[in-house]
């Protein structure tokens, strides 16, 4: 993939970003892209060993240090401590990417209250905790940006995904409300809603075998997305080309969420 080739080398050299869920998947790709383009990056997740390995991998590819900080986004106090650590180590924060998420397939009738709550706690409450914890630093930067990683599940009814759909609908509401409320502090708040991205553990777990083939057939562009394509969207939203964009969620899904089933897909 050459999605990042559109950006000038060093275009993010003044960026200091915290990326939750940055140890793996899409958010690892965002962390890598940001570091490649000159940003100072901290990655946050629950497992220190995963974060440490990801930090080493990114450093090896970019020759830039990455700060790994273990914390659970469900714990608001832990997020406050995390942001303080990042501010001290990076000298400030101007960008927050909320990508920590949980998901699994479950029929609604059999989904336990604990299972439903866990996904909402990670995706929605976790995003809010991180936003609150980073607020002061984002204000001080006078160029604050929050990117909430959402999904397209709730645009239509999605079987076996009531918990994740509800959580991501809440994330979209969070994006809109904070964009309006925090604009006076020079903080932009936007979302990215990826469609099916093939090179992720989530796709391997949630759409194996025939389910994956059926999902690919539902994408008008005829293929799954790539992590680098989602990362490129995150770079664009941080770039000087996007300074008048706030309160919206950028859908990056190959047209899947707007396609009527079976129409024009060959």
Keywords:
266 residues, single chain, 44% helix
Structural account:
The chain is 44% helix and 14% strand. It is α/β, with parallel strands linked by helices and 266 residues long. Helix 4 (113-141) packs parallel to helix 5 (162-181). The longest helix is centred in the middle third of the chain and has 29 residues, at 113-141.
Percent of residues in β-strands: 5-15%
Order of helices and strands: EHEHEHEHEHEHHHE
Count of discrete structural domains = 1
| Approximate helicity band | 40-55%
- What is the strand arrangement across the widest sheet? 3-2-1-4-5-6-7
What's the level 1 CATH class? Answer: Alpha Beta
User: Span from first to last CA?
Assistant: 25 Å
How is the quaternary structure best described? single chain
Question: Mind sketching the topology for me?
Answer:
Blueprint: E1 16-20, H1 25-36, E2 40-45, H2 48-62, E3 66-70, H3 76-90, E4 95-98, H4 113-141, E5 144-149, H5 162-181, E6 187-194, H6 201-206, H7 209-217, H8 227-238, E7 249-252
Parallel strand pairs: 1-2, 1-4, 2-3, 4-5, 5-6, 6-7
Helix pairs in contact: 1-2, 1-8, 3-4, 4-5
Quickly describe the structure.
This protein is of the alpha/beta class and 266 residues long.
């Amino acid at each position: 993939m050459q999605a990042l080739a559109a950006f000038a080398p060093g275009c993010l050299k003044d960026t200091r970003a915290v990326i939750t869920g940055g140890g793996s998947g899409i958010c690892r790709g965002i962390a890598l892209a940001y570091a490649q383009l000159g940003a100072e990056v901290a990655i946050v997740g629950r497992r220190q060993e995963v974060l440490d390995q990801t930090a080493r991998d990114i450093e090896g590819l970019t020759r830039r240090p990455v700060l790994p900080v273990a914390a659970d986004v469900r714990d608001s106090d832990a997020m406050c401590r995390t942001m303080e650590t990042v501010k001290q180590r990076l000298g400030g924060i101007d960008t927050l990417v909320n990508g920590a998420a949980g998901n699994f397939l479950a029929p609604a009738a059999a989904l336990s209250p604990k299972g439903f709550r866990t996904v909402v706690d990670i995706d929605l409450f976790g995003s809010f905790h991180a936003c609150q914890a980073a607020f002061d630093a984002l204000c001080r930067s006078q160029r604050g940006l929050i990117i909430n990683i959402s999904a397209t599940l709730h645009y239509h009814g999605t079987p076996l995904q009531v918990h994740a759909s509800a959580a991501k609908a809440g994330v979209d509401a969070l994006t809109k409300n904070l964009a309006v409320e925090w604009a006076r502090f020079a903080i932009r708040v936007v979302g990215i809603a990826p469609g099916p991205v093939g090179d992720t553990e989530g796709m391997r777990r949630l759409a194996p075998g025939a389910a994956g083939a059926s999902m690919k057939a539902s994408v008008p562009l005829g293929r799954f997305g790539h992590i680098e394509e989602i990362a490129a969207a995150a770079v664009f939203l941080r770039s000087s080309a996007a300074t008048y964009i706030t309160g919206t969620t950028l859908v990056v899904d190959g047209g899947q969420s707007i396609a009527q089933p079976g129409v024009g897909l060959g």
